[in-house]
Structure formats: structure tokens, C-alpha cells
Amino acid sequence: MPGYVIYLSTEIETDFGGNNYGYWTGKTYRHEDVVYPGCEDDKYDESVKVYKFKKSAEKMTEKLGERFTYVRSSVVEEV
Fold first, then answer.
1. Is 48 exposed, middle or buried (0-12, 13-18, 19+ CB in 10 A)?
2. How deeply is 8 buried, as exposed, middle or buried, from its count of CB atoms within 10 A (0-12, 13-18, 19+)?
3. pLDDT per residue as tens digits for the range 4-23
4. Measured between alpha carbons, how far is 10 from 74 in angstroms, rounded to an integer?
């Protein structure tokens, strides 16, 4: 059964380069009163959060956009 991961970017268009966060791990960290998403570069990393359903991952992308100031776009990918 496939799983789904979320790729987060600080750019309006996610181009998998430049100033991107990476794949959402489901964790956060704080630096100087700003909360950032925990991310990894490899979508197959064991710490990356995998969703069973695409709809769940898509709903989470909306929440992440609201939760993190610098997240400007995201992509749901199948793994």
C-alpha cells in the first residue's frame, strides 16, 4: 500500500532546489521565538512522516501553511 509524504518549501513554486525545507518529519523546532518544521532531504529517510491516505496529507499541508510563517508551498508525493 502506498504512503504519502509532504515536501515543504519557502518558495511560492516548489522546484526541489533553492531555499526549500524538505520532507516533513512531523516535528518542529523553535529558534528565537519562531517555530520551524522539522524536515529531511530524503523522502525515504525513516524520520519522514508518512501518511496512509493522500487526503490526510493534503489536509495537513493546509495546516502546515498556517502553522509555519515561512512555508509558502508544499507538494504531496507518493512513496
1. buried
2. buried
3. 999 998 887 655 556 688 99
4. 9
